Every structure is written in structure tokens, then in C-alpha cells.
Input
Amino acid sequence: INSFFQPVQQLVQLYTQYQQGKAAIGKIRGLLSSEPSVVPGTRVLPPVEGEIVFDGVTFGYLPDRPVLQGVDLRIAPGETVACVGPTGAGKSTLAKLVTRFYDPSSGKITIDGYDLRDVTLDSLRRQIGVVPQEPFLFAGTLRDNIAFAGPSATDEEVWAAVDAVGLRDLVERSPEGLDTPLHERGQSVSSGERQLLALARAFLASPRVVVLDEATSSLDLRSELRVEAALDALLEGRTAILVAHRLSTAMRADRIIVVDDHRIIESGSHTELVAAGGAYAAMFETWAAHSH
Ligand code: ATP
Output
């Protein structure tokens, strides 16, 4: 029996290797050829309420490899939706589509009924604030870093953002207050403070919609609580999509979607999804068992 199966097994192995090689070449080609090129629309997006709708959205970085397939999702104005799911499932991709980093290969995404493809990138991005996983800080003062999107912000506006995210003590401890220069690349601030500064920056810009890719760096409990409180302040009253790497963050959202297998496989509040006993409930059980 072995003498029959061995060659078959080898063939299967060879074929798998061949497929993997092909995929790798495709991936490299994709990386080389694709600075994402979206064609901006011409309409200026008027001030929005912040309703985001995915209508049958399919997208992949490479033509034969869908990352998202036929995704339908409606986010109501003011609603916070957290995306959870395994690594590589497409959570960040979903978020990037909202900021029009890429366009769906089929289906469409609308904001207040406007197809993202029809509006200017400038008018879109002014109403959608992005907080990346690794927020950048630059050489400049605390004020420069916070008022990045609105350099003409008044002191009152900057302080309001500082207070909203609970950074008053950091500013007051700094020798020149808001005018204290940050070391280049912000080595002089902790990872938690860096996240708070990024949240202050988004708060000051005051967009209707926030797309936030949660930092993965682990924080001590006190910093984590501060970041969570700042997040609550930022997201209050805005539409938000959170790529949540911590279930403790996801739990605070109005709704959680589980992205896996190119689709949204579950959608509901924390309580609903735990009661449903599916993928989210399993993730939560594992998390709860390890964190207490
Ligand atoms: P994580 O939790 O690890 O951040 P994720 O769910 O956010 O994962 P994505 O970053 O959206 O996943 O990636 C989805 C898939 O798309 C992965 O297989 C990833 O390798 C692939 N991918 C992501 N960005 C690119 C890109 N620029 N070019 C090609 N493939 C990409």
C-alpha cells in the first residue's frame, strides 16, 4: 500500500510547493507594481452624518486572492463597530477600504449615500479621521504634534483635546508646556502617551467618522485604562470602525463584527455574541481564561 501512496503523496507535496511558489511570485509582483492607485472623484463631499454602508464588497490585493468577499455592512451614524478575527482575516483591509486606500473590485462603499469613488479624496479624508496602529510623532512641539491636522488651532482647542484624552499632566510636567519640543520620533514619550497623543490629534481634527487600528503594543494596566477612557471620549457621538486587537476594547463597542474566511461571520453586541455561542464566544472564553 505504501509503495502506491508514496508517489502520490510526493506529487501532492510537489504540487503544493509549486502553488506556494506561484503565490509568492504573484505577491512580489503585486508589491512591486502596486502603489495603490485610486482615481479620485470630483464631487466635494458635503458635511456628513456618518452612515457607512458596504454593499456586496469584494476586494483582494491580488486578482485571484480575495481578502473580502461579498461583504455587506451598515454602520449607523454615531455607532462604534469593532472588528475582531484571526490574524490576516482582513480586518485592517476592511478599515483601509473606508478611507479609500483601495477600491473594491466589486460592490461599493458609501458614506451618507455617496459612493466613495465619486467624491474628492480631500473632502473625504477631512471627515474620516484615521488613527493608525503605529501613530507617528515628529520632531516639533507637543502642540505641533497634536494640532497636526489643524495648525491654526487655538490654545483652547488644543487644551480641550489634551483634556479629553487625559494628557494635562504630561503637558504640565513638560518644561515649556505645549511648546516643549518632542525628541525626534518621540522617544521621549512612552508607548501609552504616544497613543494618547494620537487620540488627542484625532480629537482636535474632530472628524465625523473615525477609523482606528488599535496598537498591539502591550501597556501596563494604568496606561491601558487611560487609553480606554481617551478612546471613549474620542468616539462619543462619532461613527467609528475599530480594528480591535484586545477583546477588552471590542467589548466597549456598540457592535462587534467577526471577520473570518473573507466574510463577516458574526455581528452583534458583546452580550448577544457570547449568548450565541459561536466564534466570538469561543474567543472570549479563551481570553477570559487567560486574563484572570
Ligand atoms: P492582523 O490582525 O494581523 O492585523 P488583519 O485581519 O488586519 O490581520 P489584513 O491586514 O487586512 O488582516 O490582511 C488580510 C490579508 O491580506 C492577509 O493575508 C495579508 O497578508 C494580505 N495583505 C495585506 N496587505 C497587503 C498588501 N498591501 N499587499 C498584498 N497583500 C496584503
